[in-house]
Amino acid sequence: MAPPRAGLGTNQEAVRRHNLGTLLRHVHQRGQSSRAELTKGMGLNRSTIAGLVAELESLGAVEHADTVGGTRGAGRPSVGVRVARNGPFVVAVDLGVDRAVVARVGMGGTVLERAETVFEGSEAWQVGAVVAGLVRKVVADAPDLSPLVGIGISVPGLVRRSDGLIRLAPNLDWHDVSFGSIVLAALGVDVPISLANDADLGAMAEHERGAAVGVGDLIYVSGNVGVGAGVITGGQRLEGAGGYAGEIGHLRFNPGGKPCHCGNLGCWETEVGAHAIADAIRCPPERVPELGAVLAGYAKAPRELRAIGQAIGQGLASLINAFNPQVVVMGGYFGALYSLVRDEIDGGVADGALPAAAESVTLAHPALGDDSVLLGAAEMAFEPLFVDPPSALGRAILDARARVAG
Amino acid sequence: MAPPRAGLGTNQEAVRRHNLGTLLRHVHQRGQSSRAELTKGMGLNRSTIAGLVAELESLGAVEHADTVGGTRGAGRPSVGVRVARNGPFVVAVDLGVDRAVVARVGMGGTVLERAETVFEGSEAWQVGAVVAGLVRKVVADAPDLSPLVGIGISVPGLVRRSDGLIRLAPNLDWHDVSFGSIVLAALGVDVPISLANDADLGAMAEHERGAAVGVGDLIYVSGNVGVGAGVITGGQRLEGAGGYAGEIGHLRFNPGGKPCHCGNLGCWETEVGAHAIADAIRCPPERVPELGAVLAGYAKAPRELRAIGQAIGQGLASLINAFNPQVVVMGGYFGALYSLVRDEIDGGVADGALPAAAESVTLAHPALGDDSVLLGAAEMAFEPLFVDPPSALGRAILDARARVAG
């Protein structure tokens, strides 16, 4: 506890750390920035900006750039800063129901290295060991002294906001699993680790640097084995009381339909999820993991996919009525289907959505391709760095050997 | 445009007006407040608070109160302020599909006078004339020099946020109606007027001074002829891109069901709206306006309402999965039904909602009874007063005769 008389000094220090973080976030979002842009964007004077840049340089987070963007005035290039080569990085984990993709991601959202594997056993400790192995792989070649800020994990299920507990990952059959601790135990290192729902992270990444930059109201729909949504409204993530908002795979859709793992009949997920798609095109259940490749192989939509497209559109109409978004990003298999059966999807939306809500919405492919969720996990792991860079870098792991200790 | 050198002064003036508004909002929310509470709550020193209070007194918005709340220290009563008798007021209009309720509402959310009528013709100009008549009636006895700050109107339909245009009021058969201008024309006076969706206003009022004070994530469900929701998430209203979010009456519910006015089959509204309730209990269509009295007349639920209760619960389960609220306020006829068929409603929620979302949600009756929406309209009309009291009072109508000019 600071003594009361230190109040002002403490405040100034907090403001300085806040400004350092804001500047670093700005550079991270764009990859680079000119000093003129920073001065204008942050509303601070040139000497304050210079001081902040100098401190971030000394922390190894940014470096000097001779020319940034275009030129200014009489053709003189604008000097500025860019994210540091060998600067801070994070590890992002996209956990699926039968595979994990792990990447080392640098500032600016650059994937520096990636590893992927299909796993056999799906017990949490088994998957934790698989993920730890992939993490070791992607950090092995990271430069020495390049700080590992944290690990971010996307989860195909419900994640408690307060502590990252996985309350339910239905297609892994996990209930109340503290997967973050399991991965840290398998790694044998102490590094900040955070978890969130996959669709929420997809929404975050597409909003930050994808198909919905500058869009205040958007839905990222994740169409995989499970179907979920990440919702951003008024520029803020829709979290709900516990962090579980967006479970739109369990909207009642066809009460006479198939049983869902949640215990109800005919949830939207049972009609448009990966298994329903596989059924429609007679892809055997064991090949569902390859469904992406199967769908990519079609030049033209087989007739059987049309009904799925219509059901996707009809469900999206309910979401559009409920959330009135500007953009719906079609993540997971919905992206491939939006290429194949676009007319059916658009038709379902047009039929089901109220005109006032339908007229202003655009359906879009994810601009980050298959990496929306992975890059969202990276953004989440970077977050503490933009809140307080000196503290986050103080906690970061610098020693390359320590990172692969386990 | 202020000259550049006036920058600091202009800023100080803006801060002062902001502080005046914040203090006034504080007193409005509680009806009264001690100076000690204000000093603590606003983080300003005693002399600044005294100056703000003096200015609000001179504006006629608050007045001195000798004793406020309990006592402090050695039994000495805490002096403070309360909302002024004969202070600023608003007119709130709750527009239904066949009737309008209009009230004069004072600061502190006190209904000072109320008038209500069932209307015959439902053309916008006819309804506008009816509403204008009721407005005249409730302001006729307002004290001279008591300022009319504005009129707030709740609408059973979709209201464009940018300008208050009613895009669609399905049960009035209105499309793109500028009802605010129509009412002003019928009144013949120029006063700030604002419009919003009824369920959104119900949510606002229950959050401000009802069943969900201090709750960050709540849904106010309005079960009337139409069914809609007002959603507050993370303490902010969920508006969507155009202001149309919350149209959950058109969630796909029973695709083999009855046709809805929106063109689809089996929207939730067709299964749980007033007409469905009336059908279930064999109340003839022309008596739907009295449905509230009919429901209130049951000591025990007739068997026919049980299926409706279950359908309400099943639909709420979809909302709970989508929004993960802490509280669902049962507005409109849903309140009466929650008294009659609570087990069926709770059962539908328990069956349909994911446990992580269901375990933390409470269904509640509106604490403001039938007045949630009306008081929400009043809060909306007061809003400019809490943003900038001197400006809002400068625009207000003081002259009692001018208020009933038309």
From TrEMBL, chains A, B:
Among CDD domains, the record links this protein to: ASKHA_ATPase_ROK_BsXylR-like
Question: Which PANTHER family does this chain map to?
Answer: BIFUNCTIONAL UDP-N-ACETYLGLUCOSAMINE 2-EPIMERASE_N-ACETYLMANNOSAMINE KINASE, ROK (REPRESSOR, ORF, KINASE) FAMILY
- What is the source species? Nocardioides anomalus
InterPro entries (UniProt xref): ATPase_NBD (IPR043129), ROK (IPR000600), WH-like_DNA-bd_sf (IPR036388), WH_DNA-bd_sf (IPR036390)
In Swiss-Prot or TrEMBL terms, this protein is called ROK family protein
Q: Which domain of life is it from?
A: Bacteria
Q: What family does the entry list? A: Belongs to the ROK (NagC/XylR) family.
